[in-house]
Design goal:
By secondary structure, the chain is an alpha/beta fold. It has 2 domains: about 40-400, Spore Coat Polysaccharide Biosynthesis Protein SpsA, Chain A; about 405-475, no CATH class. The chain contains 13 helices and 20 strands. It has helices spanning about 5-10, 25-40, 40-55, 80-95, 130-145, 160-170, 215-220, 225-230, 250-260, 300, 325-335, 405-425, 450-460; strands spanning about 65, 100-105, 150-155, 180-185, 190, 200, 205, 210, 235-240, 265-270, 280-285, 290, 315-325, 345-350, 350-355, 360, 365-370, 385-390, 440-445, 470-475. Strands 1, 2, 3, 4, 9, 10, 11, 12, 13 and 18 form a 10-stranded mixed beta sheet that branches. Strands 5-8 form a two-stranded antiparallel sheet. α4 (about 80-95) crosses α9 and α7 packs across α11 (about 325-335). The chain is globular. The protein starts with a helix and ends with a strand. The protein binds uridine 5'-triphosphate. The site of uridine 5'-triphosphate has 20 residues, from loops.
Length: about 475
């Protein structure tokens, strides 16, 4: 679109302030601003202003909510034969190369306050491996196990794409085939003030931010990742977040449930630890499956108990899914409001220009960001499956610099896991009541990425090593 037409489009939508300083910019600045503006659809922003700003946020429909059904683990009453069948089906799919890994790594990680792509943050107890290295080694090991190297898709953001790319190149893709690691950028959305006016980061740049993890569906399509998957005969993506090194990136049982049930989007749940735990809730609403955020579900409902005295809405979401390729394509391309993701509103501090054109950093939320959430795709998925998983073996995210879900809690959870594996292999490990060992140890994912693979490798050691502080088990 010609510059003139683009500017007019913004003016017509009441967003002329975006170009307030256009005539004073040099040609590079004008080019930059026009490129930003080309990413923005002022008509879409007007619609969002109406639905999310004027009504003070969309009202979440809580009518007819029921707890979602899920497949309990065998140790919690699940059907052993069904889990075995799932595992066999998952292994078959992996040997056939039908599944790839997918990490969403485009977030800003503001809570952690780390300068750099979050995937480059060091997390392991001894070797200080980064999140990306942990995932890479898990994928390397799983690819070897099933005789089929895995493809890995990673969604970055405009801000962290180049740094992520260089990081992988610098570390020679941690042993993975570079042709199997596919980085692509997610989309961006402009921030607006509370009157719906698009905010400017500087005179030649719109205040833009990543469009949320739900933007991954569009980005997978736009980047050509779905076409690549089709060419490679990859039918599904194993989706996980960049901040959770415990995740079983490739879990044969989960994959098997997904394929056997012909599910378009599958999810893992953990029973909520306590009623007020800040996780989304898997619920049934009519025929569909939905995730209702903790902030949207009234405390009284979260506290409801069932006949056995447990929490009624106990299925907590930990952002681990499997997504069918053609489902992603359908969602990415749907323009009907009935079958596409809706934006959420998040009030944030947005560095921006004031009325005099000066940069200001607000101390309070001064703007609204628009984000898509991937779990909003669930109601549109056919045959969605939810399975139970053990929190200790799948979930310990690094979100905050300190306190809950921090590097420290994640390190301790890794140590507890290594200690459990050693115990399962018959080694006596001294731990405290929480299962935390008294010594620092580490297991390379290529040695063992779950209990079973760990025990297999452990049995091959002769003699087995002495347990001591600093023990690192690797192949
Ligand atoms: P979070 O909700 O934890 O957000 O993202 P964040 O941006 O990483 O961190 P804060 O809230 O600023 O502290 C959960 C996962 O979704 C990804 C993140 O990279 C993380 O893996 N994500 C989030 C994206 O890929 N894109 C986004 O726009 C938002």
């Amino acid at each position: 679109m010609a510059a003139h037409d683009l500017i007019e489009k913004f003016q017509e939508a009441g967003q002329g302030q975006v170009f307030a300083y256009f005539d004073q910019l040099d040609s590079a600045g004008q080019k930059r601003l026009l490129a930003d503006a080309a990413e923005v659809d002022p008509v879409e922003i007007a619609a969002l202003n109406e639905s999310l700003l004027q009504s003070k946020g969309a009202v979440v429909d809580l009518s007819g909510l029921e707890p979602a059904p899920y497949e309990p683990l065998p140790e919690n009453g699940g059907n052993v034969a069904s889990w075995q069948a799932a595992r066999a089906a998952g292994e078959l799919a992996l040997r056939a190369g039908r599944v790839a890994a997918f990490t969403v790594a485009g977030g800003q990680g503001t809570r952690l306050g780390y300068d750099g792509p979050k995937g480059t943050f060091a997390v392991t107890p001894l070797k200080q491996k980064t999140l990306f290295q942990v995932f890479a080694e898990k994928l390397l090991a799983a690819g070897q196990r099933y005789g089929k190297p895995l493809h890995w898709f990673i969604m970055t953001s405009l801000q962290n794409h180049e740094a992520t790319e260089s990081f992988f190149a610098e570390h020679v893709y941690f042993g993975l085939d570079a042709d199997h690691v596919h980085l692509f950028k997610q989309g961006r959305m402009p921030a607006v003030d509370f009157d719906g006016k698009i905010l400017m980061e500087s005179r030649d740049a719109i205040a833009m931010s990543p469009d949320g993890h739900g933007g991954s569906l569009r980005a997978l399509d736009r980047s050509g990742a779905l076409d690549l998957m089709e060419r490679e005969r990859i039918d599904a993506l194993s989706y996980f977040q960049v901040d959770n090194p415990l995740v079983r990136c490739i879990d044969a049982e989960f994959i098997g449930w997904h394929f056997l049930r012909e599910s378009e989007m599958s999810s893992k749940m953990v029973p909520k630890a306590y009623s007020g735990e800040k996780v989304g809730h898997f619920c049934r609403q009519g025929e569909g499956l939905v995730v209702v955020e903790y902030s949207d579900l009234p405390a009284a409902v979260q506290e409801e108990t069932d006949a056995a005295g447990g929490l009624r809405f106990k299925a907590g979401s930990i952002a681990i899914h499997i997504l069918d390729r053609e489902f992603i394509r359908r969602m990415a391309r749907s323009r009907s409001t009935d079958e596409s993701l809706s934006f959420h509103r998040a009030d944030k501090k947005v560095p921006s220009l004031d009325v005099n054109g000066q940069s200001v950093k607000s101390t309070e939320a001064n703007g609204v960001k628009f984000e898509l959430f991937v779990f909003d795709a669930l109601p549109f998925a056919r045959n969605p499956v939810v399975i139970e998983t053990n929190r200790a073996d799948d979930f310990s995210p690094v979100k905050n610099a300190k306190g809950v879900d921090s590097a420290q809690t994640c390190r301790d959870d890794q140590l507890r896991q290594f200690a459990r594996w050693l115990r399962a292999a018959g080694k006596d490990v001294t731990t405290d009541e929480s299962g935390l060992p008294s010594i620092a140890i580490e297991v390379a994912p290529t040695f063992g990425y779950d209990e079973e693979t760990f025990i297999e490798s452990w049995k091959k050691l002769s003699p087995t090593p002495t347990l001591a502080d600093g023990l690192y088990l690797s192949t």
